[in-house]
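User: Sequence for Hydroxyethylthiazole kinase below. Tokens please.
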Amino acid sequence: MKNDSISELLLEVRTKHPLVHNITNLVVTNIVANALLAIGASPVMAYANEEVGDVALASAAVALNMGTLDSRIVNAMEITAHAANEGQVPVVFDPVGAGFTPYRNEVATKMINKYDLAVIRGNTAEIGFLVGAGGTVKGVDAIGVGDSLLLRMVQYARIQHCVIVATGETDYVTDGRNLWSLRNGHSLLATITGSGCMLTGIIGAFVGVIERDASLLSIAHTCIAAITCYNVAGEIAAQTASGPGTFQVALFDALYHLSGDTVSDLAKVELVM
Ligand code: ATP
Ligand code: TZP
Ligand code: MG
Ligand code: MG
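Assistant: Structure tokens for Hydroxyethylthiazole kinase:
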């Protein structure tokens, strides 16, 4: 993947202002909307069963996040995913806390098996659990990574026909054939809640500006662009932050002012296999 395509995709987000329908969690709703606005997208948070199908169909992409589940939200996620699939609107799924409780595992498995998901984005432990590679989930945080994660991720993406993103200090992206490692970001991202949830929304914004029938390779490139923009913004924010509080504020500013050229210069993307 060429670094200049990262800045082209960022420019597309800033000029098209894609509408991203988020069903996200109670902890992060506001910051996900603000992160999307800062990067140039247009967020809408909508949960009512009566309208989610219409909202999904009017959107450029849908981002579904399992952070604070209940049966009403699961129902809304199902109606949304069904409508999005019918309308060829790409769905990004964040299996927050998969591996932590049987309920989360059941919902994640159902969403993955029943609907076409363009991208599944979780931390390494959540993805490790889903792909059968182990890893330990403590609430919504990763504390251990299984050895076989990378190979199993690739196999799982091929079987499910989707792109899988596993984040952490190093992020991994696969389209089921290729595997990339991404080494941008900053440890302060792990000190604020919602850093993964904001990234999931931003991946939605980027996937929302490419063609609806894009190949998995092209969706994977788009995820790499989104993650690299976000993580370079994290690096820039860390330069002025004195801790998690100032870091979160600086992250919005960095997303807003982010230069495509800077991202291209600082990108650390490698094809692993
Ligand atoms: P968790 O629930 O464990 O916080 P998450 O869903 O928030 O997981 P993370 O894996 O923390 O997701 O990733 C969120 C973002 O933070 C990603 O962009 C990732 O690259 C970045 N990130 C997380 N930890 C680090 C780190 N130690 N160094 C650099 N970047 C990091
Ligand atoms: N509890 C349920 S959802 C949530 C918490 C703390 C936020 C998780 O956000 P992230 O981005 O996965 O760290
Ligand atoms: Mg986090
Ligand atoms: Mg998460």
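The chain has a mean pLDDT of 96.
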